[in-house]
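With this grant's support, we have settled on a layout for protein records. A representative record follows, to show the layout.
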Amino acid sequence: MPKPQPKNLIFPVKTHSLTIFISGNQTSTVADLKEEVLSAFQSNVRSQVDDLPEVTSHQDFELCKALKDKGRLTGKYEPLHEGAGIKGLLMNWDTLAVQYRDPETGNLQPIELRVPSQYDEDDEPASRGPPPEARSPLASVQKGKRKAPPQ
């Protein structure tokens, strides 16, 4: 039996290198979530992220859900309809992406997400494990072999 969903749901919303956390309840609609995202865009986040498009209304962008195949992300996204309720459509902690509209044509632009590196450029490890000269040839031959205890 699946675990019941909580009353308040949390959704990370990603765009460029920015992640916004929004919340909604089971009766919320996608339009309610877009209003929260718009409110976040109109705060001071634009000064913290480079290349973030100008957003003045909820018609300037769409929220999209990542498509999964057998539980794995496919890298494709599906726009969510504004009038749709989130109950049954989204699960708690489902990641949403922002897809912007072209200001001149109104067409949807490709989704742009940047994943930052785990390491600073100076701290990135060159390789995993001990260096080759530190590996003992006997260690691989005798691996798992022990002397039997005296009886």
